[in-house]
């Protein structure tokens, strides 16, 4: 059952980039709006909304802001947000790296223009819908830390309907499952005493593009940073692979 090291590597690479910037209040609030709109606007009955709220609270977003975001997603906020929509953009970065960008916007033209500039200025290009998404599949991922017994992790993961797991760094792990089983897996792991640090839907690449050129590596990280910093952007996912030495050098 263990495996999928490429999945874990991509996540760690993305986490390194995200850690430099952190999510803004706007992005976290919009994640709540998306979740409230995609299901019932009650965290008790909406797993996606519940996890979005948890992340917002960890980031220090005030409860009033969270409640306002829920109301916007539900369509009950007086200003209204009926023009907002979720949309995915696709493109290529340096070294032919595939990039998926998930956004939440009230103006497609503005968002597309901002993304096009970000891609073109950093060695990439914004493509048509479907140009790279065929390389990815969406999975549910539960992140854990403090793993002391890998055999117990295997046993509980199977009980929770997981497809696979991957041990990462510092006694941490990622457990993968089908989209519809994410909440069940998350609850099973928690009930068995595992420390869950995150549960999310993630695009997983089926093949990877290796980056070996230092200049291309620096341009790639700059592109991901630039895309992630845009308020309309919720997530940026790539399929790059890079050795640790080049990664450290590129991000210095």
From TrEMBL:
One of its GO terms (molecular function) is DNA binding. GO terms for biological process: regulation of DNA-templated transcription. Signal peptide: none annotated. InterPro entries: Integrase-like_N, TACO1_YebC-like_2nd/3rd_dom, TACO1_YebC_N, Transcrip_reg_TACO1-like, Transcrip_reg_TACO1-like_dom3, YebC-like. It comes from the Bacteria. GO terms for cellular component: cytosol. Pfam families: TACO1_YebC_N, Transcrip_reg. PANTHER family: TRANSCRIPTIONAL REGULATORY PROTEIN YEBC-RELATED (PTHR12532:SF6), TRANSLATIONAL ACTIVATOR OF CYTOCHROME C OXIDASE 1 (PTHR12532). This is Probable transcriptional regulatory protein KME60_32425. It comes from Cyanomargarita calcarea GSE-NOS-MK-12-04C.
């Amino acid at each position: 059952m263990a495996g999928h090291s490429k999945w874990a590597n991509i996540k760690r690479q993305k986490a390194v980039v995200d850690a430099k910037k952190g999510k803004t209040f706007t992005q976290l609030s919009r994640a709540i709006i998306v979740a409230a709109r995609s299901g019932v606007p009650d965290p008790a009955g909406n797993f996606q909304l519940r996890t979005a709220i948890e992340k917002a609270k960890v980031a220090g977003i005030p409860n009033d802001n969270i409640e306002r975001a829920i109301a916007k997603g539900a369509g009950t906020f007086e200003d209204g947000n009926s023009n907002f929509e979720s949309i995915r953009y696709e493109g290529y970065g340096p070294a032919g790296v595939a990039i998926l960008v998930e956004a939440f916007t009230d103006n497609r033209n503005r968002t597309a223009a901002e993304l096009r500039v970000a891609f073109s200025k950093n060695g990439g290009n914004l493509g048509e819908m479907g140009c790279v998404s065929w390389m990815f599949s969406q999975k549910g991922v539960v992140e854990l830390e403090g793993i002391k017994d890998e055999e117990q992790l295997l046993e509980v993961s199977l009980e929770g309907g997981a497809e696979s797991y991957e041990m990462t760094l510092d006694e941490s792990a990622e457990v993968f499952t089908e989209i519809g089983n994410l909440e069940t897996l998350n609850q099973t792991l928690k009930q068995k005493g595992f420390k869950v640090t995150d549960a999310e839907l993630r695009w997983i690449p089926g093949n990877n593009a290796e980056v070996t050129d230092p200049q291309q590596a620096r341009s790639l990280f700059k592109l991901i940073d630039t895309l992630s910093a845009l308020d309309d952007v919720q997530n940026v996912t790539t399929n790059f692979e890079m050795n640790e030495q080049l990664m450290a050098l590129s991000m210095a």
